[in-house]
Amino acid sequence: MIIKISECCGTFAENKDLARDIREKDIRPKYDDSDEKIILDFAGVDSSTQSFIHALISHFFQTTGESSLDRFEFKGCNKAIKSLITTVINYSLE
Q1: Integer Cα distance of 6 and 90 in angstroms
Q2: Which domain holds residue 60?
Q3: What is the full per-residue pLDDT of the chain (94 aa) written as tens digits?
Q4: What's the Cα-to-Cα distance from 22 to each of 1, 2, 16, 27, 65, rounded to whole Å?
Q5: Structural domains of the chain, count
Q6: Which of 46, 48, 54, 82 is the Cys-Cys partner for 11 at CB 3.0 to 4.6 Å?
Q7: pTM above the 0.90 mark?
Q8: Rounded-to-integer distance, Cα 47 and Cα 12, Å
Q9: CA–CA distances in Å: residue 67 to residues 4, 31, 89, 90
Q10: CB proximity list for 9: less than 8 A, separation 6 or greater
Q11: Are 93 and 64 in contact (CB under 8 A)?
């Protein structure tokens, strides 16, 4: 399953309510019902807020821990977005 973040958010992923909707409507059903890898493709996204990334993925890492690392793949991330994802994952695993 591939979710192209730019298709719903454009070049700046900032809306945490939209991130929550993506999490609940698109990611959670696949996460709960299959072992399929969830690919979050950030190609075309120039920047994001930490609150967007947090609303998008932190729940999974907080509830299932490091095993969520096996379920997600992050593609097309620039350096700033990679850093935000790493920060959110580390914070969520504490």
Answers
A1: 24
A2: 2-93
A3: 999 999 999 999 999 999 999 999 999 999 999 889 999 999 999 999 999 999 999 999 999 999 999 999 999 999 999 999 999 999 999 9
A4: 13, 12, 10, 6, 20
A5: 1
A6: 46
A7: yes
A8: 5
A9: 23, 12, 12, 13
A10: 15, 18, 45, 52
A11: no
